[in-house]
Amino acid sequence: MLRKRDPVCGAKINRDSKHFLEYSGKIYYFDCQGCKATFQEEPEKYIKKKSNVGFLKKLAKDTNSVPKCCHDIKN
Q1: How many domains does the chain have?
Q2: Domain range enclosing 58
Q3: How far apart are CA 6 and CA 32, in angstroms?
Q4: Does pLDDT of 64 surpass 50?
Q5: How far apart are CA 34 and CA 70, in angstroms?
Q6: What was the pLDDT predicted at 49?
Q7: 6-39 burial string, b = 16+ CB within 10 Å, else e?
Q8: pLDDT tens digits, 1-50
């Protein structure tokens, strides 16, 4: 299965993710509803930025665990 990157957090997700939306003729995939909602608030911010590939790695290092989703972290 082809994998895509979540434009908000950079997580790799499958194209069969239930969290996706079409914006300006392109389909964007998300690892969770939280990232999808964040994208919907300011889509151009996430389309223009470079992929945040290292975000989850840094998050895992900071929390000593590997979250399934960047929104799974409890503060």
Answers
A1: 1
A2: 3-72
A3: 9
A4: yes
A5: 9
A6: 65
A7: bbbbbbebeeeeebeeeeeeeebbbbbebbbebb
A8: 567 888 888 888 888 889 999 999 999 999 889 889 999 999 998 887 65
